[in-house]
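Here is one record:
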Amino acid sequence: MSALAWQDQAACRGHRLDFTDGRTTREHVAVCCRCPVMDECLAWALEWERFLSRDYVAGTAGGHSAPERLRLVGAAA
């Protein structure tokens, strides 16, 4: 089983959550809130995004917007 197999269960599977779909952050977070793998998604995003430039962190993951995740990554550093 792939380390990212949890993505197959994601409520957002098949949807773009990077704001190119015209929805708001609140609408994207609402998708996350009904997701059975929200915790796995957040953990993955935080792990991955700590290696990215702040300019490349975007969209919604694990029930958090990009600015919220940047604060979480900064708090963990």
Remarks:
- The longest helix spans residues 38-49.
- The radius of gyration is 12 Å.
